[in-house]
## 1
Amino acid sequence: MHDIKFIRENPEAYDAALARRGVKVDLGYFSGDILELDAKRRVIQTQLQEEKARLNDLSKKIGLAKRQGDETLVQTLMKMNVPISQSFIAEAEMAEKEITDRLLSIPNLPAADVPDGPDESANVELRKVGALPTFDFAPKEHDALGTALGLMDFEAAAKLSGARFVVLKGALARMERALSAFMLNLHTGAKGYTEINPPFMVRDEALYGTGQLPKFGEDLFKTNTGHSLIPTAEVPLTNLVAGEILDEAKLPIRMTALTQCFRSEAGAAGKDTRGMIRQHQFAKVEMVSIAHPDQSEEEHERMTACAEDILQKLGLPYRVIVLCTGDMGFSSRKTYDIEVWLPGQNAYREISSCSNCGDFQARRMNARFRSAGEKGTRFVHTLNGSGLAVGRTLIAVLENYQQADGSVVVPEALRHYMGGLEVITANV
């Protein structure tokens, strides 16, 4: 959510930043529309405060007249003691809601060093890490490999749940568990993240806090209890500090969680309909940092390096790109995407997205910190990143470690978690 004071004082800078994101003028998000709503709200609020002050002063005068026994004055003052009309109170509430709803719908402003561009074509590659594997046969895609091994069953999943689900069996089910444990152990060990086991269902307030609502409600799976299934652990982890005033000395707070994630993929109709790339339910290890504003850029680099370390230890080639203004997520001010190499697709595909949201989410959640010896508070900065998407990491292992006979070598880093298994063969 945006700081209305910043918009009042910097309308041109605010508009320029929105324009960089490709926001259309007719949406009513630019400073002229926002400040018009703000002016309307402030006039009504001033009138309401003046009326409350008048009634409060009148109440004091009535009390004094009663104590002095001046019944005539009491009656005169009582006639003036007309309550504020409910319609005026409703008008004030509506004016407040109108500007709040508008501000909640406006995406975060991009950082100054984010490249400009309309879409993913303008993203900038920062680095490539790891040599691409070579094969003396035509490498297969993960779904063909998993199905041939008898360990990846899309038909059984469709019978149970429909499209965009999978049933993993045997060694592949164990590999997903192994990858999850491997990732969590690394993050909670050398990387210093605290493991959290959060709820998988949240209320709307939490989704508003991180920016999934109000714009992306169609991507959520709703229950009949007023909850939504989480699209990412970012939602519950970040909201753990909602409404809190934190001690500056405790920053940064680093958290990680393994959860199932649930997405309707409403905005991705027709994309990646085969295989495990884009599913309605998937496991992901998430990282969240609650940081001091002066440290959030450094924390962003650190978080991205933590995600990269997973891929390096697994021996998977990847590249890091910085997203342009037109391709960033709603709440992000700067995002690094990590894309792993998939030989079966002969392409890099996203496996992690690490974002610095600045104080955008913190304002929505009212998450602040106080420095020692100071009365005032400041909003924290929030960051989130995949560390990693477990299913996509499994896909990358299958495609990069496949052999000509259809078997798959288990990366050395996972063998301890796989009971010493070195090669996955059919029906293992």
## 2
Amino acid sequence: MINLEINGKPYEVDASPEEPLLWVIRERLRLTGTKFSCGIGVCGSCTVHINGKAERSCQTPVGSVQGKKITTIEGLPENHPIKQAWIKEDVPQCGYCQPGQIMQAAALLHDDPHPSEAKIVEHMNGNLCRCGTYPKIKSAIRLASRGGKK
């Protein structure tokens, strides 16, 4: 049995320590906001926070996160500045990559509340969007960094 803390709640799961955290989150715990896309850690759709840092859950063995705080998109409060900015900037198109994009952006703003344009691009570079909403994503991050003021 593996003990996890996800979104502030304790869970006990019967899983192999090598099983990807993504599958435990989605299939065993039914927290389906975290998405599967590439499965090799390059697209960012599966991004969650582990002890406050953005990590790819498809490449994270569940056994390696026992005793750590895991936050999924469901655990990020609805009034979080990045979620509010996402809505104001009308970022999503298809929406599939958005949970990972939001989690990556939230980690950036946690570490650097007022990132430069270059820092935004560098930090978000590993999160892919097939719809090409990158300008809106950057705009939403800038808006959130200004406290929601245009």
